């Protein structure tokens, strides 16, 4: 029976590892590392099911090559982190897809992440509330144990606007998931930045608001944000050993 799954497992491994190599060549090392790790695991699963000895040798050689490259990336990234020189840039082209929050942030939401800071001057319209909520949901679904999310944004001076009530509802909802949402307002905030207390800093030119409006309520990309077209923007990723701490 395992033999029937071999072509599918092998195809999945090839697809993931091809993506890893593409990301590697684009210097998107953290994303490449995640894909290498996933692809290697798929090849290991394939190896267990293979009966042919010559194929086993072939898979072992492939696995060793990819593992060596993954270790090189890890060592290179760790060296840059230690020196405080880590910088990675991701360019999101106009109308491109494949940049859901899960896809974009996945490489950075491990390693003991418990606290997140979001600085974005524009969280005041309905679609922006949903973007922020979707980001929080992504953190909830991840393997990390986030306990506190800080949001710093500008206050909508229109008293009839839904900003205060919408954010209060998100805060209440997160509280039910044992996550504290701390909301602060600033009249001088301009830059957009997301900080994780595991050292990662992600600066997105458009903040979380880089998705285009869907073409229709029943069009592809309305529900799955990996299929949603994006506005052109740049993502800069840094790493620092000095992170913010919760004020006491």
Written account of the structure:
With 248 residues, this protein is α/β, with parallel strands linked by helices. It has 6 helices and 7 strands. The chain has helices at residues 2-25, 29-49, 53-83, 101-105, 126-141, 163-175; strands spanning 87-92, 115-119, 148-153, 180-185, 193-196, 200-204, 233-239. The protein is elongated. The model has no long low-confidence stretch (mean pLDDT 90). Pfam families: MIT (PF04212), MIT_C (PF16565). Residues 6-84 form the MIT domain. It comes from Phoxinus phoxinus. This is MIT domain-containing protein.
Entry keywords:
248 residues, alpha/beta, seven-stranded mixed beta sheet, 7 strands
Topology readout:
Elements: H1 2-25, H2 29-49, H3 53-83, E1 87-92, H4 101-105, E2 115-119, H5 126-141, E3 148-153, H6 163-175, E4 180-185, E5 193-196, E6 200-204, E7 233-239
Parallel strand pairs: 2-3, 3-4
Antiparallel strand pairs: 1-7, 2-5, 5-6, 6-7
């Amino acid at each position: 029976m395992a033999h029937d799954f071999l072509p599918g497992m092998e195809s999945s491994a090839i697809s993931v590892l091809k993506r890893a190599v593409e990301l590697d060549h684009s210097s998107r090392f953290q994303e490449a590392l995640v894909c290498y790790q996933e692809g290697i695991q798929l090849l290991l699963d394939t190896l267990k099911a293979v009966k042919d000895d010559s194929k086993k040798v072939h898979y072992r050689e492939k696995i060793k090559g990819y593992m060596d490259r993954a270790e090189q990336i890890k060592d290179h990234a760790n060296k840059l982190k230690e020196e405080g020189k880590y910088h990675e840039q991701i360019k999101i082209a106009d109308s491109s897809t494949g940049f859901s929050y899960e896809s974009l942030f996945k490489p950075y939401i491990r390693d003991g992440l418990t606290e997140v800071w979001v600085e974005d001057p524009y969280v005041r319209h309905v679609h922006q509330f949903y973007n922020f909520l979707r980001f929080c949901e992504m953190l909830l679904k991840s393997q990390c144990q986030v306990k506190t999310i800080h949001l710093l944004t500008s206050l909508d001076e229109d008293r009839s606007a839904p900003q205060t009530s919408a954010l209060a509802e998100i805060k209440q909802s997160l509280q039910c998931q044992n996550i504290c949402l701390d909301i602060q307002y600033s009249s001088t905030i301009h830059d957009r930045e997301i900080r994780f207390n595991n050292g990662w800093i992600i600066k997105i030119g458009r903040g979380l608001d880089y998705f285009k409006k869907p073409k229709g309520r029943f069009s592809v990309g309305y529900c799955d944000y990996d299929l949603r077209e994006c506005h052109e923007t740049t993502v800069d990723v840094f790493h620092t050993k000095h992170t913010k701490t919760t004020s006491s």
